[in-house]
Amino acid sequence: MEPLFNKDVELVGWINSMQHIFDTDMNWVAYISGGHGWSVETGNWCGPVPGLICLDQDGRVVAWNPKENVIGTVRPILPVRAISPIRPVKPIRPVRPVRPVRPVTPIRGWSELTFAEWLSQ
């Protein structure tokens, strides 16, 4: 389980083995299929998830992990809708991570979406 931070270096969620994304209360909020994040609530495409970075539909960074380079991408192509996986077992809340150093602003800038807005598209 790896922590996800927003542009203000606040813990916003957790990513589990490149399959599932949980909020800070360990609620399952998104799943990953084909390198893209999909909202559990709406079933809609949130954006690409390359490694431990969550990008919006314009290719800008919404959430990141210090183990990855914080970079965006060009506007991605809308993928084919993914099939929702079976709901995972609610994980035990990990120990709160140490707050990382604020990364350099990505080349294309940060997303205007908050993590919650990214999930509810």
Please, could you describe this protein's structure?
By secondary structure, the chain is mainly beta. The protein has one domain. It has one helix at residues 115-119; strands at residues 2-5, 11-16, 20-23, 28-33, 36-39, 45-48, 54-55, 61-63. It has a six-stranded antiparallel beta sheet with strand order 1-2-3-4-5-6. A hairpin with a 3-residue loop joins β2 (11-16) and β3 (20-23). It is globular. The two termini are 24 Å apart. The model has no long low-confidence stretch (mean pLDDT 95).
Spans of at least 5 consecutive residues whose pLDDT stays below 50 are: none
- SSE string, helix = H, strand = E? EEEEEEEEH
What Rg do the Cα atoms give? 13 Å
Number of helices: 1
Percentage beta strand: 25-35%
Q: Estimate nothing, just give the exact number of structural domains.
A: 1
Q: Which strand order spans the largest sheet, edge to edge or round the barrel?
A: 1-2-3-4-5-6
What is the arithmetic mean of pLDDT? Answer: 95
Assign the structural class, choosing from mainly alpha, mainly beta, alpha/beta, alpha+beta, or little secondary structure.
mainly beta
Shape: globular
- Give the N-terminus to C-terminus distance in angstroms: 24 Å
Total strands: 8
Ordered list of secondary-structure elements with their pairings:
Blueprint: E1 2-5, E2 11-16, E3 20-23, E4 28-33, E5 36-39, E6 45-48, E7 54-55, E8 61-63, H1 115-119
Antiparallel strand pairs: 1-2, 2-3, 3-4, 4-5, 5-6, 7-8
Key features?
single chain; 121 residues; mainly beta; two-stranded antiparallel sheet; 1 helix; globular
